[in-house]
Design goal:
By secondary structure, this protein is an alpha+beta fold. β3 and β4 form a beta hairpin. Among the domains are: about 220 residues, Leucine-rich Repeat Variant (Alpha Horseshoe), CATH 1.25.10.10; about 130 residues; about 120 residues, TATA-Binding Protein, CATH 3.30.310.10. The chain has 26 helices and 17 strands. Pfam families: Adaptin_N, Alpha_adaptin_C, Alpha_adaptinC2. It is found in: Endomembrane system.
Length: about 775
């Protein structure tokens, strides 16, 4: 590519690579996408690469994450003003189903493309707000800072941006990043919407104030500044609104955080000075011009050669005229635009931290980010050193099949630690003197032998055992079958751990591992099931059925009928909580391996505490609420015995894991705990829950628990739920999934569990077939 080749030759090269990315073989598709990305630096071929845009977008849905990453890099590099809207819209759609490991990178690249190639600023604001709405957890602060800078520097954009922020705040449970940007925009420019219905200063204040109990400290600071701005812009002054805002300021004057406390004190004093308030809280000035922080963030990240090609091309390209022309309403050439346009200026960037790509290592096995795949370099993997088993295992990654060869890992991938693809080790190695050496090995695919190829010796042995086999099968019940496939983890323990955190292993047996990654927002939840085939043979007849309780609405996406060898598939679930209940949804999961059907009924960790949001209350907020909830059924008290003995700080950590914020200082007795949370459901919306635990230092096996809320059903269910996690109940292991014999099937690869064939009727039946 570095040679000055003729354009005709380069055209033919791109055409051949276009055929590569359309074949079924994943390794060929990967190489085609990678080298097409490298060719972006060659002049006069980008228009030819655009002809394959539809096929490249299709590669975003490929089962192999390394191919999806390559397709993302290629789309990022080939984007320009002619196809920016189509590509950014595709990336926003893909964001709904993208795995968590890719969402931060995907959000960053979508934001950069929207900034550089926006046809107009209103479209840019729409894209970034959609980005925050769809993937707020993965949108860095630099992205919403950038929107604020654009809006500040463009007067014509300010009413539109404020109106869009007002619309997003109306949605149920907006993300906290959305609350931040909306609070800033409405505080600065909400007065421009005063004539619109639902946009009066008082209505904007009430809308913002609804969010303050559920947000973090840094967001509270932005909200207080927004209240002060709203108060300043309210003309003529509204005494009722002023009194409401001053009450908020007074409440936060004694807040534990110094920044919040200082803002509240200063805003309260400024609010009394009338005209002085307008001078101090004047609108933000225009920002000076600087390099885009987002582009610098992408450039500073450690990436491989193909990705560098896309990023280098991005840095060389000019930004969209919509985002970089000066504030002069006339273009640089002096021509007057024919249609009204927004007055536009260049915008600065913010200082950002470098994005380091780290390599996650689990149990001695390196998890290499697929974005660093280099098929040409093959390095032998060393035998892993023995390591201690982790106390709380996370879902381990699965290598999708086939995966291009990978070089040794280099430092850092910020996205791997979110969940990454499940790394699944092979089945348990056989024991005995002929066992193969341990270590991460990928055996070649085992093909089923045709029936005609069964040796005569095996057939004779099978016939000799025919009568014994028939008798054994005649008296064997489902529970007594010796070829039952047992889980290799304690299912009850795994479920309990997932009740306290949002990612981990739900189920695992010698052939499959099911991992869970979840995110929760108010009464909505999204779980992703990671189904990883650990074997070198496919798992067939895969079925998953959700049995939801009455208080949950659960929608499961389609589950593939077959999981390829050593591959991972993802199945998202959408959850809506209707009301409080301790009932648990059940996943009825089954698959077929060889001649056995494995059935497992697994409890899903969509439990009561997932819909709690911890909240810290001051004494002035807590005690009026506590006294207002006088007695049963809104306030219930119970002496709980048989409690697991634990120190007070350990109990506080347990409550934090249950999404209950332990607030010190509310109870004078140092042996007591007070915790608060907000419970969300579709029927009750946000409901405050207050908990008090009184312990006896001389007897840690009993305590008195008092729980109060505004809903009797919630009070009872939450009390019982917390009690279940406090009482030392022995964990009973649920019934194991059972393998049931099915009709004759072709000879399958040997099971990892290899008992003697003479003691195993299933093995003898396989020998006959």
């Amino acid at each position: 590519m570095h040679l000055d080749a003729e354009k005709e030759m380069m055209t033919q090269c791109v055409a051949l690579l276009g055929k590569f990315i359309a074949v079924r073989e994943p390794n060929i598709r990967y190489l085609g996408l990678e080298n097409m990305t490298r060719m972006l630096l060659v002049t006069d071929v980008q228009d030819i690469i655009k002809r394959h845009q539809a096929q490249i977008i299709t590669s975003l849905k490929d089962p192999d994450i390394s191919i999806r990453r390559r397709a993302l890099d290629l789309l990022y590099g080939m984007c320009d003003v002619t196809n920016a809207k189509d590509i950014v819209e595709e990336l926003l759609q893909y964001l709904n189903t993208a795995e968590f490991a890719m969402r931060e990178e995907l959000s960053l690249k979508a934001a950069i493309l929207a900034e550089k190639f926006a046809p107009d600023l209103s479209w840019y604001v729409d894209v970034i707000l959609q980005l925050i709405d769809k993937a707020g957890d993965f949108v860095s602060d630099d992205i919403w800072y950038r929107v604020v800078q654009f809006v500040t520097n463009n007067d014509d954009l300010q009413p539109y941006a404020a109106l869009k922020a007002r619309e997003y705040l109306d949605k149920p449970a907006p993300h906290e990043t959305m609350v931040k940007i909306s609070a800033y925009l409405l505080g600065e420019y909400g007065h421009l919407l005063a004539r619109r219905p639902g946009c009066s200063p008082k209505e904007l204040f009430l809308l913002l104030n609804e969010k303050i109990p559920t947000v973090a400290t840094n967001t509270i600071a932005i909200l207080l500044s927004s209240y002060a701005k709203i108060l300043m812009h309210t003309q003529p002054p509204d005494p009722e609104l002023q009194e409401q805002i001053l009450i908020i300021f007074r409440k936060y004057e004694s807040y534990i955080d110094v920044e919040i406390q200082q803002r509240a004190v200063e805003y309260f004093e400024l609010s009394k000075k009338g005209p002085t308030l307008a001078d101090v809280l004047a609108e933000m000035p225009k920002f000076p011009e600087r390099q885009s922080a987002l582009l610098r963030k992408a450039e500073d990240a450690e990436v491989d050669t193909a990705e560098q090609s896309a990023i280098k091309l991005r840095s060389q390209q000019q930004s969209s005229n919509a985002l970089v022309v000066s504030s002069d309403p006339h273009p640089a050439n002096g021509a007057v635009p024919l249609t009204p346009q927004l007055s536009l200026v260049r915008i600065p960037s913010q200082t950002v931290e470098e994005v380091d790509h780290e390599v996650a290592t689990e149990n001695g096995l390196a998890v290499i980010p697929e974005s660093k795949v280099e098929p040409e370099q093959v390095q032998p993997e060393p035998e892993p050193e023995p390591v201690a088993a982790p106390i709380q295992p996370e879902p381990v990654a699965v290598n999708t099949e086939p995966v291009p060869a990978k070089p040794p890992p280099s430092a850092g991938d910020l996205l791997v630690d979110l969940l990454g693809p499940l790394m699944i080790e092979g089945p348990p190695a056989p024991t005995g003197p002929e066992a193969p050496p341990s270590g991460p090995q990928v055996p070649p695919p085992v093909q089923a032998a045709p029936v005609a190829a069964v040796s005569e010796r095996n057939l004779n042995q099978g016939l000799d055992l025919g009568q014994e086999l028939a008798g054994a099968l005649a008296i064997t019940t489902l529970e007594d079958e010796t070829n039952s496939i047992q889980p290799v983890v304690n299912l009850a323990e795994k479920f309990h751990l997932l009740c306290l955190k949002d990612s981990g292993v739900l189920y695992e047996d010698p052939y499959i591992q099911i991992g869970v990654k979840a995110e929760w927002r108010a009464h909505h939840g999204r779980l992703v099931l990671f189904l990883g085939n650990k074997n070198t043979a496919p798992l067939a007849s895969v079925q998953a059925l959700i049995l939801p309780p009455a208080h949950l609405q659960i929608e499961l996406s389609s589950v593939p009928d077959t999981i390829p060898p050593r591959a991972q598939v993802q199945c998202p679930l959408e959850v809506i909580n209707l009301r409080a209940s301790r009932d648990v949804a059940v996943l009825d999961f089954s698959y077929k391996f060889g001649t056995a059907v494995v059935d497992a009924k697994l409890r899903l960790p969509a439990v009561l505490n997932k819909f709690l949001q911890p909240i810290a209350l001051t004494p002035e907020e807590f005690f009026p609420q506590w006294k207002a909830l006088a007695g049963p059924p809104l306030k219930l008290q119970e002496v709980v015995r048989g409690v697991k003995p634990m120190p007070l700080h350990e109990m506080a950590n347990l409550f934090m894991s249950l999404h209950l914020a332990v607030t010190p200082g509310l109870d004078a007795n140092p042996n007591n705990l007070v915790a608060c949370a907000t419970f969300y459901s579709e029927t009750t919306r946000a409901m405050l829950c207050l908990v008090r635990i009184e312990t006896d230092p001389s007897d840690r096996t009993q305590l008195r628990m008092t729980l109060a809320s505004g809903d009797p059903s919630l009070t009872f269910e939450l009390k019982e739920f917390i009690k279940e996690h406090l009482i030392n109940i022995p964990m009973a292991v649920p019934s194991s999934p059972v393998a049931r014999p099915v009709g004759p099937a072709p000879v399958q690869p040997q099971s990892p569990q290899t008992p003697s064939r003479y003691n195993d009727p299933g093995a003898m039946l396989a020998g006959l077939l």
